[in-house]
Amino acid sequence: MSDDANGTGCLLCAMEEAEASAxxxxxxxxxxxxxxxxxxxxxxxxxxxxxxxxITGLDDAELAAFGRRAxxxxxxxxxxxxxxxxxxxxxxxxxxxxxxxxAARGADVPVERRAGDLLKxxxxxxxxxxxxGLLPAVRTAxxxxxxxxxx
Length: 151
Description:
With 151 residues, the chain is α+β, with helices and mostly antiparallel strands. The protein has four helices and five strands. A five-stranded antiparallel sheet has the order 1-2-3-5-4. A hairpin with a 3-residue loop joins strand 1 and strand 2 (30-33). Helix 2 (60-81) packs across helix 4. The longest helix has 22 residues, at 60-81. The chain is globular, with a radius of gyration of 14 Å. The termini are far apart.
């Protein structure tokens, strides 16, 4: 699926309209949310709010802020889930709008589903209700770790 494959434009840009209940945080440059179609508990998209294609399309301010936002979101997801590993994955192939998938990997995930094979869990563990149920704990941890309200 590409940015335009759904016929409505860019999925990541459309996430600007996401309900606050799907959001970990949003600031002037970055947002983290549960992404439509990726509602696996402990999975969040960290996305540039501006349509910037690939990491090379980020401006200096976005690039400077990305590391802190990624660190704080990974730490919050790890804390809230108790996951022994939390991945930060960037591809840019299906959706060119720059984003990273932050994905908790639970201890129950078999070895053959770890590392890059974790993405196969999208089909196997899609659970919108459980993903939404975890979000408040991630938001609370993020706010404490980042030292800022989630907005």
